[in-house]
Amino acid sequence: MNIKTISDINVGMQASVTRIITEADIISFSEISGDKNPIHLDEEYAKNSRYKKRIAHGFISASLFSGLFGTKLPGEGCVYAAQSLRFKRAVYIDDEVTASITVEKIDLKAKKVFFTTVCKVKNKVVIKGDAEIFIP
């Protein structure tokens, strides 16, 4: 997409990205965020949890939205104003996550675009939310 101004954006426009969540992603994210919860890092601990194995940090998948906003839709120069998230299912190591954003509303006066945000694994919703993005 080649979005130049807010007038180039229309309700219903979409962008998506797919990424496999790896062991390295989880280790790196735990270092960056400081979240060293054993549910993410310790196989023995996770075996006794409700998930039965290690799960990825929810914000790893949610961070894919940021990449979509900054590079695809709306693109360069936009800035997050708000993001709501509902974590519906766990994401596991080696899951293929598809993050999608869809334009729901445009406020030309405030130079904001409102999106629905969804992450899916095997066509099941794992994260659902809404975002507000400032447009330059």
Spell out the helices and strands N to C.
Answer: EHHHHEEEE
Instruction: State the separation between the terminal residues, measured CA to CA.
Output: 16 Å
Structural class by SSE content: alpha+beta
Task: Return residue spans where pLDDT drops below 50 for at least 5 consecutive residues.
Answer: none
> Tell me about the biggest sheet?
5 strands, antiparallel
Describe the protein in words.
This protein is of the alpha+beta class. It has one domain (about 10-135): Hotdog Thioesterase (Thiol Ester Dehydrase, Chain A), CATH 3.10.129. It is about 25% helix and about 35% strand. The chain contains 4 helices and 5 strands; from the N terminus they run βααααββββ. The chain has helices at about 25-35, 40, 45, 60-70, and strands at about 15-20, 80-85, 95-105, 110-120, 125-135. Strands 1-3-4-5-2 form a 5-stranded antiparallel beta sheet, with helices on one face. The longest helix has 14 residues, at about 60-70. It is elongated and about 55 Å long. It starts with 13 loop residues before the first strand and ends with a strand. The model has no long low-confidence stretch (mean pLDDT about 95).
Task: Please write out the topology.
Blueprint (H helix, E strand, L loop, with lengths): L13 E7 L2 H11 L4 H4 L1 H5 L10 H14 L7 E9 L8 E12 L4 E10 L2 E11 L2
Antiparallel strand pairs: 1-3, 2-5, 3-4, 4-5
